[in-house]
Design a protein that fits this description.
The protein folds into 3 domains: about 25-285 and about 310-390, no CATH class; about 405-555, Immunoglobulin-like; about 595-649, no CATH class. The chain contains 16 helices and 25 strands. It is extended. The N and C termini lie far apart (about 90 Å). The model is unreliable at about 1-25, about 55-75, about 175-195 and about 645-649 (pLDDT under 50). Pfam families: Gpi16 (PF04113). One of its GO terms (biological process) is attachment of GPI anchor to protein.
Length: about 650
């Protein structure tokens, strides 16, 4: 209803004011799709793809500042919030990543999309700024990350100069390939775009990705997550996964005939544990199963009533898409124009083996083969897919990555340490060329002269470690304390079936008290390293074939005892209170005998009783005709009498 009301409002404005460019409002292309692929150990890879292409004539002015374009022509399907940000900051290209978890390359194979839309742990962003001056580009970069921080409810405003790396060679603009690029085609370039593009990269490995980031991510879609495949994206399920990545790419596409138009890609890739999702359906509150329901391997010699070695995951499984995501796919997003874009009409595809059997609810089968089945969605029907197999280990073949990489900390103590990176080329025939990029925080002081490269192979005779034969080029920019971090980039070549071990030493820096985070004893996160595999075609053109990241590191720095000031304050206050109380008592208090205090301080009530008793005795004596006693003696006798009465009572 919201979308329909917006279109009716725009149509009324066009008719009322006779705007000739109103035809451009409905222009632009939006396509969405979902790919499902079972993985080993009863896991599921779900890849959501959303793409928006603006109209070439309508959106030219958005990036390149052409005046005179109508307001309605600027924003059709393309989100206005993103358009205004990239326009005000003169951003030529933008790439934003939100990632959590760990991708198991040995079990799951290649990263989705060859790692192009995958970032490091936390939040990662890089962009090309089209300005003439370096200072102007840097200011635009900080303005960009602050605007993205507000748009996506992230902490990108903390990406300052110490977390920014300018112009690393591990990244290249997506709009630079082919003859239709704005870099190679002068007729497509606008006069107010500088030929100088400034690349900036920043990351926040400490950032936690959550529903606050997913909600604004979905609001950029035309259907806002209310219809189409995006209706499956529930934060409770997405962030309960083993690994998940959200990506947003903004890229201009230009050619000499049609000019430039904008292309925005949004992708969500998630690896879900099917069995855990099914258990959550039956038991929303996680709790361990009863002892009698545990499936133990009784063949183990140490098996007993108190020791259980769990059996592998069951091979016979049956589940539905709604069981894993907690909901069915709602009706098709009416703005999805895939059939008009590439001639196909599918929205959901499954990649399985012949041992899997599918059932569907709603939708239409577009194509079906033993290894792949695609379905289209209906406008008014919900859609669901059921998966059934007697051998869940039978999954589609996962291609082996061209390289494997792992990184870890070495050394001990609070003064210095080291970093070790192991890169493995599993190919038995091909040499791998790659670029390895690291951005270190300023409180890590690496010694570049300690950089060592050791090469080993699975053969009996090890290969001598000759650094010059493996490390072809080194780009290094030293740190400036509290201003910028260390930038290290290596161009490497690894022979077949070899492991390259890179290592270097570093010193740890003492921080000011205000520079420590609230949980300083946890450690400091070091951004992951980025490995880019290079390939060369027959014409000698180098392309980036595969990109992967290492896991982030946790650095332990010398940490003060933050509770010490409070302990000192409490101890000092206690000692001062005890000393002051003792001295004050000695100076002010006066010590006297108890009898003197009682005699001098007769209670008021006692005095009142004595006076009333004396009067009563006088009246009684006068009535009997006797001589009254003396006043002082009478009061003493009366007081003694009442004291005796008080004691008896």
């Amino acid at each position: 209803m919201f979308l329909l009301g917006s279109w009716i409002y725009l149509l009324a404005v066009c008719i009322l004011f006779d705007i000739s460019d109103c035809a451009l409002v409905s222009r632009g292309t939006y396509i969405e799709s979902l790919d499902l692929k079972p993985l080993p150990r009863n896991t599921l890879l779900a890849s959501f793809n959303f793409e928006i292409y603006s109209d070439s004539a309508a959106e030219n002015g958005l990036v390149y500042g052409i005046d005179g374009a109508d307001f309605l022509a600027h924003y059709g399907l393309f989100p206005r919030s993103v358009g205004q940000i990239v326009k005000s900051t003169q951003t030529h290209e933008l790439h934003l990543r939100f990632t959590q978890g760990w991708w198991d390359s040995e079990e799951w194979g290649l990263l989705p999309h060859n790692g192009k839309y995958t970032g490091g742990t936390g939040v990662e962003v890089w962009a090309w700024i089209a300005t003439e001056q370096d200072d102007e580009a840097e200011n635009s970069w900080y303005e960009l990350v602050n605007a993205l921080s507000g748009l996506f409810c992230a902490s990108l405003n903390f990406v300052d100069s110490s977390r920014t790396t300018p112009n690393p060679i591990s990244f290249r603009p997506d709009s630079s390939g082919g003859s239709s690029s704005i870099f190679t085609n002068p007729t497509a370039r606008k006069s107010n775009v500088s030929s100088t593009l400034h690349l900036y990269h920043g990351s926040l490995p400490r950032e936690t990705v959550c529903t606050e980031n997913l909600t604004p991510f979905l609001k950029l879609l035309p259907c806002k997550g209310r219809a189409g495949v995006s209706s499956l994206l529930d934060g409770h399920r997405i962030f309960d996964s083993k690994w998940q990545s959200m990506a947003l790419d903004f890229v201009p596409i230009c050619d000499s005939d049609n000019g430039c138009r904008l292309h925005m890609t949004q992708k969500v890739d998630v690896v879900l544990d099917v069995l855990r999702s099914l258990q959550r359906k039956h038991s929303p509150v996680p709790k361990p199963p009863p002892l009698e329901e545990l499936q133990c391997d009784t063949s183990k010699s140490y098996h007993s009533e108190s020791i259980c070695f769990p059996l592998p995951s069951p091979h016979v499984v049956e589940w539905k898409l709604s069981d894993v995501f907690g909901r069915k796919i709602k009706n098709r997003c009416l703005l999805d124009q895939r059939s008009e874009y590439d001639g196909s009409s599918y929205s959901v595809c499954t990649h399985i083996t012949p041992e899997w059997h599918l059932t569907r609810e709603g939708g239409t089968v577009v194509s079906s083969t033993p290894s792949k089945a695609c379905f289209s969605l209906h406008e008014n029907d919900e859609f669901d897919i059921g998966f059934l197999t007697s051998n869940s280990t039978s999954v589609s073949k996962n291609e082996r990555p061209p390289v494997y990489i792992q990184r870890s900390m070495t050394g001990r103590g609070q003064q210095n340490g080291g970093v070790q990176t192991i890169i493995h080329n599993p190919s038995m025939t091909d040499t791998v060329s790659l670029v390895y990029f690291e951005s270190l925080p300023w409180y890590m002081k690496p010694y570049i002269h300690t950089l060592a490269a050791a090469l080993s192979t699975s053969a009996l005779s090890p290969i001598p470690a000759i650094k010059e034969e493996v490390v072809k080029d080194v780009l290094y920019r030293p740190f400036l304390e509290r201003i910028r971090g260390t930038y290290l980039e290596l161009k490497l070549e690894i022979p077949p079936d070899s492991r390259l071990t890179l290592s270097y030493d570093f010193d740890k820096t003492l921080l000011y008290l205000a520079e420590y985070p609230p949980d300083a004893n946890r450690g400091f996160d070091v951004p992951p390293g980025i490995l880019t595999v290079l390939t060369k075609d027959d014409n000698g053109t180098i392309s980036y074939a595969y990109t992967l990241r290492t896991s982030s590191l946790l650095l332990s720095l010398p940490t003060p005892d933050f509770s010490m000031p409070y302990n000192v304050i409490i101890l000092t206050s206690t000692v001062m209170a005890l000393a002051f109380g003792t001295i004050y008592n000695i100076l002010v208090r006066r010590f006297v005998y108890e009898d003197d205090v009682v005699r001098e301080h007769t209670p008021l009530m006692q005095k009142l009783k004595q006076r009333i008793g004396a009067k009563f005795v006088l009246w009684k004596t006068a009535a009997e005709g006797n001589k009254p006693p003396e006043s002082g003696k009478l009061q003493e006798e009366t007081g003694a009498k009442y004291k005796s009465l008080d004691k008896k009572n």
